[in-house]
């Protein structure tokens, strides 16, 4: 997993997400800190599940019980289930970065949804954990489209 945040955004940014995932366990859920792994990383696909064993090791993925999600079964207790996905940034650089960390340490079905939350915020890097709403944000839904454009002007988001 690349742990370097992506930066240097411009007024026109093109991102691409690929269905390439990794799971890991994060020790703490601390808002406004980078989601760091304290376990091994496991490459995983939708429809699979992994066990975080009592020694804190993620075992090899196996077939799961959901074709649209990834099951994370936590037998370690003190780690938070986390999911990363491959992203291609505006410069063409590919990275696998965290997209979700559970605030609980329970077992979870992680189901990626085709939505992206967009907002402006200083001093917050890609891969930073947060909880709660973001001011002046817009949710962009990619359920039925592969591209989307949003404009921001006068503190409002519009779709051209």
Description of the molecule:
The chain is an all-beta fold. It has one domain. The chain has strands at residues 16-26, 42-44, 48-52, 62-63, 70-74, 80-88, 94-101, 108-110, 115-118, 138-141, 151-153, 156-158. A 4-stranded antiparallel sheet has the order 2-1-6-7, with no helix packed on it. Strand 11 and strand 12 form a beta hairpin.
In short:
This protein is mainly beta and 160 residues long.
**First-to-last CA distance:** 35 Å
Tell me the structural class: mainly beta
Total helices: the number is: 0
Question: Helical content, roughly?
Answer: under 10%
Order of helices and strands: EEEEEEEEEEEE
Average pLDDT over all residues: 83
Looking across the biggest beta sheet, what order are the strands in? 2-1-6-7
Strand content: 35-45%
Number of domain units: 1
Please count the beta strands (DSSP E, at least 2 residues each). Answer: 12
Low-confidence stretches: none
Radius of gyration: 16 Å
């Amino acid at each position: 997993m690349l742990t370097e945040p992506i930066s240097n955004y411009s007024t026109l940014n093109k991102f691409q997400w690929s269905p390439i995932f990794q799971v890991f366990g994060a020790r703490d859920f601390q808002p406004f800190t980078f989601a760091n792994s304290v376990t091994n990383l496991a490459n995983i696909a939708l429809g699979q599940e992994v066990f975080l064993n009592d020694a804190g090791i993620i075992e090899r993925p196996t077939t799961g019980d959901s074709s649209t999600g990834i099951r994370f079964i936590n037998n370690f207790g003190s780690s938070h289930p986390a999911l990363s996905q491959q992203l291609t940034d505006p410069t063409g650089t590919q990275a696998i970065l965290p997209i979700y960390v559970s605030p609980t340490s329970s077992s979870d079905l992680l189901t990626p949804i085709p939505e992206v939350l967009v907002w402006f915020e200083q001093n917050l890097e890609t891969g930073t954990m947060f909880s709660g709403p973001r001011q002046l944000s817009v949710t962009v839904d990619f359920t039925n489209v592969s591209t989307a454009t949003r404009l921001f002007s006068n503190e409002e988001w519009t779709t051209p």
